[in-house]
Design a protein that fits this description.
Blueprint lengths: L26 H6 L9 H10 L17 H9 L1
């Protein structure tokens, strides 16, 4: 298991980065260093990816066709 960088944690082991502070993105770093504007650490990017996805979509009324075989197979695996 990878230990979380202690600078990513506030008092009570709460995460410093959140949607409320836009995951502490740095606009200047977005222009000059990385597209995301976040540190290169795994934890910052993982937090962003897992919390910013939005609501799970209801796919029960979806009508898939034979050309969607790959989608059906992927969903069965999940």
């Amino acid at each position: 298991m990878i230990d979380r960088d202690q600078s990513e944690l506030a008092e009570g082991y709460r995460l410093v980065r959140s949607e409320a502070n836009r995951f502490m993105q740095d606009p200047e770093a977005m222009k000059t260093q990385t597209f995301s504007g976040m540190r290169s650490g795994f934890q910052a990017h993982d937090l962003f990816a897992t919390t910013s996805q939005g609501a799970v979509q209801d796919r029960t009324e979806e009508h898939l066709f034979s050309s969607d075989k790959a989608i059906v197979a992927a969903r069965k695996r999940l």
